[in-house]
Amino acid sequence: MKFISTRDNSITIDSQEVIFNCINDDIYVPLNLDNLYDIDVLRDMTYNELAIYILKHFLTDIDEDSISSIVNNAYDGDEPNVFLRKTNDRCYVELFNNKSLSYRDLSLSIISKFIDINLNNNEDVKNLYLFTASTDISVSTIENFKKMNTKVFVFYPNNISDIEKSKLLSTLSDNVCAIGVDGDFYECKKLVDSLINDSDIKNLIAQKESVISTCNSLNIIRVLTQVIYYFYSYVTMVKYGEIEAGKRINVSIPTENFGNIMACFYAKRMGLPINKIICATKSPLSFKKFLDTGEFVYDEVFGEESTSFERLVLANIERLLHHLINNQDRIREIYTDFREKNKFTLYPEELQKLSCIETYSMTSDEVSQKILRLFLECQYPLSPQTAMASLAYDKYVIDSYDYTPSIIMATTSPYSSTENVLKSFGYNEDLDINMALEKLNSFIKSPIPDNLQNIKKIDTTIFDSTEIKDIVYKKIQEMN
Fold this sequence. Notes:
- The protein is of the alpha/beta class.
- It has three domains: about 85-100 and about 225-415, Rossmann fold; about 125-210 and about 450-480, Rossmann fold (3-Layer(aba) Sandwich); about 415-450.
- The protein is about 45% helix and about 15% strand.
- It has 21 helices and 16 strands.
- The strands form four sheets. Strands 4-5-15-10-11-14 form a six-stranded mixed β-sheet, sandwiched between helices.
- α6 (about 140-145) links the parallel β6 and β7.
- α10 crosses α11, α14 packs antiparallel against α15 (about 330-340) and α19 packs across α20 (about 435-445).
- The longest helix has 20 residues, at about 220-240.
């Protein structure tokens, strides 16, 4: 299948070219979104079988044996652990039972293998330089990249938890460089966007007969690999009798850059019986006015200064509008309005097509209260991200009285945010890493993940963002 530019449908590339073209000005989408929902075909598929079934419809320039090899080797030759947990009136889909304690492993483990095949098949590219914020990559994926012709730069903030920092820094090698940034996650994402578009960095990498890429949702393959777990979640609900085949469900998802929302929208477009997509965010981003009125105003959505994930959000909104409006001239008109006026407005009939998406924001206090309340009610521990999605679903039901069967995407383990979960439980003592893990374990009675056993605190140097370009440039010069 070809992938087309949203801004010029005459520009088409295949999947093996996508990985080398995801940072330019064109935003790519699949040429077709075929209906792949057939419960009789899907019902007994494992996660890996579903992944192969879905990806072979998009990666048509890669033979099916290679796709099978990519998927079956993505998770150390095994099936990923994706579980359905029923509590009260909803089901949680656990996407975090892996080394990274995060949903990212499910998509990025496939992408790393996909990149490896692309590099092996492209004689013109010696290496791929991957720039990413620590929130956009997983520990397991970095382990995969160590064995490939990739050079990975990971940027992490100074306020990263000791657990996250220790997991990340334990993965370093000659071709994986982690750099601490004086700022938050958003500053790291902004740095990534700045570096991959910096002419000096791009020219230096070109001199090495190499290319730059990223593994966030600018890369359409990342979005497509996320479609898999929505199909798997639905099939699992049918398999365990939570819903009848063909019955619609609501899906509540924590998100920052709209990538997971875009993947769920694709799943819906590909025939999965989804009623509402509920977007949960704690960030300053607010899509409420946009979804209510059709008016997207830059300053109201992003604030006065450009945010770090601005480009990611806009890329996925552009994809969404491309599929909903299906009119290249109109998309160009919207893009021109936004470029010239920093805003655009949808027509009423266009806005109506966005009615499948609802969005809710919440405060940190609301999230903490949700974590505590659910644990007291049914002893099910949530991470802050999963609590956001559960809370968004609560708010949606209050607003809509819609009791359609629903799933909450549990994207991260409570152990990935040990300190925040403990504070939600009212425990505020300052503990070292291992004592904090033991304390959380004493509350939730869930085993501490193996890769967090006897973890050590690592002190590192943090750099001002103005220093980063020179550090990266020098490091690239030193790399073989």
